[in-house]
Amino acid sequence: MKSILKILSIALILSAYGCFKSKKKVHTNTEDIPVHREMKAELTSPPNVPRPVGERKAKKLIVEMEILEKEGELTDGVRYVFWTFGGTVPGSFIRTRVGDEVEFHLQNHPDNKLPHNIDLHAVTGPGGGAESSFVAPGHEKVFSFKTLNPGLYVYHCATAPVGMHIANGMYGLILVEPDGGLPIVDKEYYIMQGDFYTKGANGERGLQPFDMQKAVDENADYVVFNGNVGALTGDNAITAKVGETVRLFVGNGGPGLVSSFHVIGEIFDKVHIEGGDLINENVQTTMIPAGGAAIVEFHVNVPGTFILVDHSIFRAFNKGALAMLKVEGEENENIYTGEQYDGIYLPEGPGIQEMPTTDGVVESEIPAQNFEEQMKFGKQIYMQTCFACHQAEGQGIPNAFPPLANSDYLNADVNRAIDIVLNGKTGEITVNGQKYNSVMTRQMLSSEEIANVLTYVYNNWDNNKTVVTSEMVNKVKNK
Ligand SMILES: [Cu+2]
């Protein structure tokens, strides 16, 4: 008995030593990994990532990163001056392997107004490179570092006021792959969340300056993936085919908010927690700290549109933190049947419900100047407000939401349509021969916005091309 115990304890000690030894190897040897030749790093703009490192040996890797201050859009009609690494938010993706000696060239374009620098979380050294890379417009700085720890790391500008440089979009991801590379998967994408703070409220059009007080209060007007609302929706959605494995390199630039990253209708098979070595399996939502990252992987089994969100859910549906993954392929009813029943369920009764509001209707700031602008602004409102029920092409949903496309009810009476958007609608109506008996809540929109959205609806989908003005809306309002 005693000797058995002795053998067991020796075995235990040996195996513990084995673990310790292999761990130790990973951590002490990376600085000794020799570099073979040099190579220019391939940088990519989001949502793309460079080719996997695979079996390649460690190299001297030349990274050339150009800082560009440039105007872009946060959402339709909302302009913003972004400060970028490589011209995009997030900045260009850098892919390295452990042991690489990175020679980093940071170039500040001569048309820029401010000095900047870079702090890469993958760097072991003061300021993560920030102290060596402070660069004025029209200058270039070079510094080198060795990648010692594999993982997915954030980089960002660290020039004072740091929060402001990050808030304007100065962040991105650098991946350090382990020796031999990450396992190969079918699709890889680069997604990074960020919060934005504008002088105007969410949706207020025109060129919006950064709002320092809102940023200090962490009261974001926009929370987005890849730099603007809709950067990864509709035609810009990322894609995959049924049967493929998808790997997302997900970062959070902040500056203020932590992300509860979730994909609606998927379960992460694997998550490299915080971008490190630890892998968790079967995860619904993973926390991504500001200035942190995670690698998530999942197999796609069924076709459809999968929505990526920050599950702090008002950010997703009201501030922009929503992206789409479109999966094509064969249905699999074993896994998901699709709709099996559709009926009306109205637990709150038939009365007209109002969306809660504290400050009532906000009048639109800039009135549309012409028909084109009415159509453009109207589309924005349609996509924000009406789309959820009446659907993208105004087709409605059978038995629940009547169509606005080629709607005889709509085309018969413009004042009635205005009244419906102003005051809501309940009770039985017949649209194109189909009966509906449901509730449309009152929409909290200004006269200008109602005029624009109805003009958009009337001039689409085979409707009768009525142009609605705010005067017409006011007439109905004051009746
Ligand atoms: Cu900067």
Notes on the structure:
There is one protein chain. With 479 residues, this protein is an alpha/beta fold. Helices cover 22% and strands 31% of the residues. The chain is built from ten helices and 23 strands. It has helices spanning 2-29, 130-133, 162-167, 212-216, 313-318, 371-390, 408-412, 414-423, 447-458, 470-477, and strands spanning 38-40, 60-75, 78-85, 94-97, 101-108, 119-120, 139-146, 151-156, 171-177, 187-196, 206-207, 222-225, 238-241, 245-254, 259-264, 268-272, 279-283, 285-288, 292-299, 304-310, 322-328, 425-431, 434-440. The strands form five sheets. Strands 1, 2, 3, 5, 7 and 11 form a six-stranded mixed beta sheet that branches. Strands 12-10-14-19-16-17 form a six-stranded mixed beta sheet. A hairpin with a 6-residue loop joins strand 16 (268-272) and strand 17 (279-283). Helix 8 (414-423) crosses helix 9 (447-458), helix 8 crosses helix 10 (470-477) and helix 9 (447-458) crosses helix 10. The chain is globular and about 80 Å long. The N and C termini lie far apart (98 Å). Residues 10-27 and 356-364 have low confidence and may be disordered. Copper (II) ion binds next to loops.
